[in-house]
Amino acid sequence: MKFMKLGSKPDTFQADGKCIRYVISDLAADVTIIVGEVKFHLHKFPLMSKSNRLQKLVLKASEENSDEIDMVDFPGGPKAFEICAKFCYGMTVTLNACNVVAARCAAEYLEMTEDVDRGNLIFKIEVFINSSILCSWKDSIIVLQTTKSLLPWSENLKIVGRCIDSIASKTSVDPANITWSYTYNRKLSAPEIIVKGGMKYQEKIESVPKDWWVEDICELEIFLYKRVMTAVKSKGRMDGAIIGEALKTYAVRWLPDSVDALISDVHSWRNKLLVETIVCLLPSDKGVSCSCSFLLKLLKVAILVGVDDSAREDLMNRISLKLHEASVKDLLIPARSPQTTIYDVGMVHSIVNQCMINEKCSQDLDLGKNDVGCTDFVLGHGSLLSVGKVIDGYLEEIARDPNLSLASFIDLARSIPEFARPVHDGLYKAIDMYLKEHLSLTKAERKELCSLMDVKKLTMDASMHAAQNDRLPLRVVVQVLFFEQVRASAGVQLLNNNPRDASRSTTNTEEEWEKTAAEDCNSIKKQMNQTKIKECEFPKNGKFLKKDSRNSKSGMQLLPSRSRRIFDKLWVVGKGHGENKSSETSGSSQSPTSMVPGDTKSAASFAKHRRHSIS
């Protein structure tokens, strides 16, 4: 901290208790000046030689036959007046960053200008401020902090503005040239010389980061901080990411951790002002420079403290641009009254919708600029794949809420486009959790819920789980079994070429045999856990033989005849338009596995012995 000494005479000011100050002198005091609760017993001549205002007040007191002068609303109080009085007496006075603003305001109040005496106090303080204080990063911050208690004097004297401009200018200095710091005193010392094996090496000093200044200004009060950050942004030389980091650091420094402290009557107004200030200071790149996690946490606090709608919508728009970076935990925004759910699902739904609007606008813009289009269009969905994944995880979490309506769950699930969900495992988990926690769903509601899921997009593990899931409707279980059978059958590619027709046909035929398939599905699911049917041959006697029975640990089990009939019907439907109708009416539907050459039995007879591999 820099300082300046004024005067040369020894300090002879003495105190008599807390409320009386006097000067040791052979001459008796002839004037009493009252500042606040303190009385100063002083001499008229030295005071009047430096202060134009005291000249007027002493003259007025003499006309009233009084030796007391009451200084009303004196800036800086008794301590600031004492500095000015000592200067008038020529006594030694030390000015520094902590008291220079008070002394400057007091000197202005007393009109200690060059018109009264050359080299007066105002002139000397201004020289000190401009040549020392404003050149120092540390002192500029300290002085700015002291200006709050001296408003409006410090503002009118432009001390506040000069300090803010000094701080803002220093933030954009090349970090390689930084040799100061306020908070950590990180002065760059000379590098040490290390001797190894007779050779001298110069140790590399850790470089100063670009955001070296963000913690230093965190001690500023919110109004001053806002003005400093506004000045920093107006310079146009600061990267948005660093501004975002500065705002995050300030929020962490001042926002309380507990919800009770956030919404308490004592601090709620301050917290609301703090959040609104941070939101308005966010970089103009719509939050791209701020992490999604920070924006979501700020949104949660904004909801708790009750910020206005414009600030909340601004945060939501910024979050929608970076939703692919969000985590499920960040999206769990507590619901507020009168909502009955645990989390605010509607707000997340709005963010997702805005995200999709942004993505569509971005795609339209890119396609307009680039005629190649197709490749870029596909590659551009990388962020949406992350959005789909995190929303599926969010759906699984909110599905535990017994008060979450089916409509809300379905609407949010459908807000994610198909191409953002190449795999439906996450969606299946969410649906399963909702079915588990909402046992009162009707059959129609369960069907509507499960219609969100495409069983063809389930992985093997998810399919195996779904095939044994008693909470799923029979229609879904049968579809899972069918498509797993198709997936495991070698050489059958028709469903991959036209999966939509197969899915439609499966849905239509399920109604015909839903009642008879229930018990067979349970049998199939049990066998899927116990066995995997390998390739086998059919002798003419119709017995089921394994090719490599020596390596088998257990005997082969045939699928029940009803289960085979289910797959017979599904297979006929799966082949769909590519088969002749005569094959269906004759009762013959070709299996993925070939018939044994030389088998002279009828197709109807062969259907009874057909083998299917379940995996």
UniProtKB/TrEMBL annotation:
BTB domain ranges (all copies): 29-97
Listed SMART domains: BTB
The entry's keywords: Ubl conjugation pathway
Domain NPH3: start-end pairs: 211-487
Polar residues bias locations: 496-508
Pathway per the UniProt entry: Protein modification; protein ubiquitination
Source superkingdom: Eukaryota
Family to which the UniProt record says this protein belongs: Belongs to the NPH3 family.
Protein known as: BTB/POZ domain-containing protein NPY1
Organism taxonomic ancestry: Eukaryota, Viridiplantae, Streptophyta, Embryophyta, Tracheophyta
